[in-house]
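Hi R.,

Here's the chain you asked about this morning:
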Amino acid sequence: VGAGFLYQGQLGGQERLVTLALIDAVLVLGLQIYVGNTGILSFGHIGFGAIAGYAFALMAISPAEKAKRVADAPFGLADVHLGPWTSMSLAVVVVLIVALVVGLGLARSGAESGAVSATVITLALLFVTHEVARNWPDLTGGDRAGLSFRIGGGLDSRAPLYLALLAAILSALLYARSRGGRLAMAAREDDLAARAMGVNPLVQQMVALLLSVSVVGIGAGLRVYERGSILPRDFFFNLTLVTLVMLIVGGRRSVSGALLGVAVITVGRELARRLGQDGFEFFGIGLDGAPLDWIFRENLKTVFLGVAMLGFMIWRPAGLLDDWDLDRWLHARLDRWRSRRQDLQDGTRSELPSEVEPDDTDVLVVKGVGVSFGGFQALDEVGLEVGRTEVVGVIGPNGAGKTTLLNVVTGLVGSDTGRVELGEVDLTDMPSHQIARRGLVRTFQNLRLFGALTVRENVEVSALVASSTR
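And here is the predicted structure, written out as tokens:
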């Protein structure tokens, strides 16, 4: 169908459509860096985009133009006039500062993959930025006037868009392959297992948030620069819905999927818009007459978005590409080719020596530990002493508190009384990821693998954590 429209030249404004699609791709890639790697659904990234967009406009608009709309702009902004690229860079700095504050709030809420509290915080940010933009006319121009600095808008060329898109793609790919990206994905798959291995999910989520917000800030600045104006409704729920649907349709765990989602939804919305116009004909066939007039209405593109999101969430929640990525596919084949070539050249492989030497001086000591759950006393004055090279069994019937003791020792459950020490270090109130980094690591009775990661990536997570503690 899309090919038919293109053949007829029916997709009006193709040049502008491509320009907006490039900008949307930057925004969606920024969203993918956070949502795809941490598993936390965010409604607030367009709110961050609004902050960056207004910061860019306030610095890029000339004082003469600002005198017409925001003559009383606070913080001396009425007299500020910088070049567009300098303004965009400073706008990214501004939004990073805001993201740092919001990220600390997410950390205090105990944000983890699938946590409702984190999603609610990001949704609140979206509404707060929208209401501030509407009701602070001295800063934003309000809901009617807005901020405008060029009639007609439009960048001189698409070169900045291509550069921004390339930078966004590289940022997303490099982060996914980086140490921080792997640890963030491990926490996304199993927060408890990641903490027990020594991963601090909050740090990884903060890094992902700051990187993603910087990419979104660039996309928002380009969007304002292209349009030549900004209004509160430009960065509110409509754009939030569009970018989320693009990410969900393509595949939120894949950079290639994010780009595919942008292409599919952009073309689909344009087709729906054309189909919803009165008097539209497809190869000479009218589509707005009976019996199809109840389908092809003016708001068909909004219906298309809703149907796309609902359909994919029900029948293919992982998106078109799931976690498949062209970059990972190419690297996997290149690694296999290198491995086969190395085997043919060497014939045999030498065993790697152990890099960890046991230290017999550290002794695990548990003194008088007590834990109660409501009125049930799970542990009462429990003591234990284990040397590093010893193998000790804790024996008891079901419900005796064996797992609770193990959880207390490794920091997964807090104790009401008593102390846990490793050598001269007090582990009693230490978080589980810090205890693991001290060398006290647990396994689980039921294997807790990171399901979306490959076998190699599961092993790499352990190696990455261990390398940072040596």
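One quick note: The first strand starts at residue 147 and ends at 148.

Cheers,
M.
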